[in-house]
Amino acid sequence: MRRREFLTMPAKSLGGLLLYTLAGEPVRVQAQDGTVRVPLRFFTADEARVVAAACERIFPSDENGPGATETGVVIYIDRQLAGPYGRDRYRYTKGPFVESVPEHGYQGQANPREIYREGIRLLGDFADLPAAQQDERLQAIEQTVFFQMLRAHTIEGMFSDPMHGGNAGLIGWQLIGFPGPVMSYRDEIDRYHGLPWRPKPKSLEQVTRRRVKGWEEEVD
């Protein structure tokens, strides 16, 4: 069993409050200071730094709102790789391993954990490079399975339910105006008829008012 490793992140990256006006304009609220040590389940601390930096270049924070760092995307990816998805528990993994049409999805032998480890090796000292050089290094691997997986996971981590480790503070949902998995707004139709209305997002746990576990929490 390997030593438990941690990723040190700014506290504001783990749910710093972001509000929007009715016009959809982002308004940042002062978040708490300091740092938080987040326990990692799969990555080493150095690997997590590389992945976090790469995700930030794929979905950066800008004048429109938060990016991958603020929403804790690297934590989402770490949780997925540590769970059944990372070890290919539900994918057919026997040969032959051949290139196929995109509609068939990934047909290779390596599982997501192995793909990430090799991709991180290719990125090298990525986390210490200036932004322009980071972009060049990502463009050089743009056609690889690793980059395509990393891009998909970055988007997932931005906008999935927080129970999976990303979308901290629901700020990803605030960014796009998604209210969460609410079944009906029947009562609000009459209450806000003819008025602009942007509901505050709710996670599945907030909607159901009980602890909800993602599939990455499954154990063999």
Describe it:
This protein is mainly alpha-helical. It has one domain. Helices cover 35% and strands 7% of the residues. It is built from eight helices and four strands, in the order ββββαααααααα. It has a two-stranded antiparallel sheet with strand order 1-4. The protein has a two-stranded antiparallel sheet with strand order 2-3. A hairpin with a 5-residue loop joins strand 2 and strand 3 (26-28). Helix 2 crosses helix 5 (145-159) and helix 3 crosses helix 5 (145-159). It is globular. The two termini are 17 Å apart.
What's this model, at a glance?
With 220 residues, the chain is mainly alpha-helical.
Task: Bin the helical content.
Answer: 25-40%
Total strand segments: 4
Largest sheet, described in full?
2 strands, antiparallel
Q: What Rg is obtained from the alpha carbons, in whole angstroms?
A: 19 Å
Spell the H/E element sequence: EEEEHHHHHHHH
Largest beta sheet: strand ordering: 1-4
End-to-end distance: 17 Å
Descriptors for this entry?
35% helix, 8 helices, mainly alpha, 220 residues
